[in-house]
């Protein structure tokens, strides 16, 4: 698994000892949390980004605008009708994962459509990319897919220097409606501008209490500064933290999933916006925080199920019990 977990396993051989220090492993995550708290019938709602988009819009949750959808190859010729008038936009596969197949255009000019790295591409290149999405080049299992066109997220300037080219996002693990652990993912040159930790993005563990940085890692190893910009990662502070936690916690009622990952971006005009939901959130958030998530999950499981808490009460509980603030 990850280097951090490997080092722990070298010291604590048995699953019982790993559980004692709070590390949630893949098998336990799958059996005790995903399979137990996430009804399989609801998986398509989050595995299909278009279905996710639909339930998000129905719930009135703030998210990037849906510009258009391309479902069939013969519709590719009409792509220009979706993107004209939009100086920036994002095209993604409905069934993609790990950031694969996402094309971001930040502006247009006489030379074409500009990607975040400054490269100009032409309409034919975008049409070819959409065709590849439809053919299943980026989807799980290689099945035929759908291309989603969304409005461009306006990068909040408070994160200038913390991310390289790409827009940083915040992953919050929500368990039974409680935000239990969070991290911010920052793109790098190694990750090709994608907020994907396995490809080399930086993961910054965040304090649930106020959204401040507690630890930063790249390729599972602790770092102090962004590898491309030199920015001190320990100065990272996510604004609108209460609003962001409220958005994450509300996804419990919206999705019906008891254990999920919420991916949230900060738009400079609209504030926190929901980007995606994940019914099988990864374990690397523990590495970014330098702490196991299991004790937090156990504390919530110990609460009486007869008492129904509001979103605000759940957030207050998380802040009281999971914050590192003194």
From TrEMBL:
Query: What's any GO biological process attached to this entry?
Result: SOS response
Which ranges carry the ATP-grasp domain? 53-304
Q: Name one Pfam family in it.
A: ATPgrasp_ST
Query: What PROSITE patterns does the database record attribute to this sequence?
Result: ATP_GRASP (PS50975)
Entry GO terms, CC? cytoplasm
Q: InterPro entries in the record, alphabetically? A: ATP-grasp, RimK-rel_E_lig, RimK-rel_E_lig_ATP-grasp
Question: What is an example of a GO molecular function annotated in this UniProt entry?
Answer: ribosomal S6-glutamic acid ligase activity
Q: Which SUPFAM superfamilies match?
A: Glutathione synthetase ATP-binding domain-like
Which PANTHER family does the record cross-reference, listed alphabetically?
BETA-CITRYLGLUTAMATE SYNTHASE B-RELATED, RIBOSOMAL PROTEIN S6 MODIFICATION PROTEIN
What's the protein called, per UniProt?
ATP-grasp domain-containing protein
Which species expresses this protein natively?
marine sediment metagenome
